[in-house]
Write a structure and sequence with these properties.
It is built from four helices and two strands; from the N terminus they run βαβααα. The protein is mainly alpha-helical. It has two domains: about 45 residues, no CATH class; about 60 residues. Strands 1-2 form a two-stranded antiparallel sheet. The longest helix has about 35 residues. It is rod-shaped, with a radius of gyration of 25 Å. The two termini are about 45 Å apart.
Length: about 130
């Protein structure tokens, strides 16, 4: 069991005791404070909090912003990977003999690049 040591934690103010968490949790979901292992440390508490962050499920707007940032990053990555595959495929197509394995591999890379590029642009358009 882990406990929140922050004396001004919203949970502590509400129920007059430190918040308790299972072992795999590392920060308080109410105030973002790193958790301590013993209840004694938590009861004694800390007065100042360096990084007070609420969990994203406590603040829906923060979760929405985080998801939007992830979607933008994913769309940007898809566009970059797609363009890179298409460019590499074009280089292979110009250097390979038609019908060879390299030529067929280049077409596969080009198709994959087109799929990633379309997915990136459609995700960017969907965001707007």
């Amino acid at each position: 069991m882990k406990y929140c040591p922050y004396l001004s934690c919203p949970h502590r103010k509400r129920v007059q005791s430190p918040a308790e968490f299972v072992g795999r949790v590392t920060v308080c979901s109410d105030c973002g404070t790193p958790l301590v292992d013993t209840e004694g440390e938590a009861v004694e508490g800390i007065h100042d909090l360096v990084s007070a962050k609420a969990g994203p499920y406590r603040d829906p707007s923060a979760h929405t912003l985080a998801v939007r940032d992830d979607d933008e990053e994913r769309a940007r990555t898809d566009k970059l990977v797609g363009a890179s595959f298409i460019f590499g495929a074009l280089l292979l197509l110009f250097g390979a003999a038609p019908g060879s394995i390299a030529w067929m591999g280049a077409w596969c890379a080009a198709i994959y690049g087109i799929v990633r590029l379309v997915r990136g642009f459609s995700a960017a358009r969907r965001k707007n």
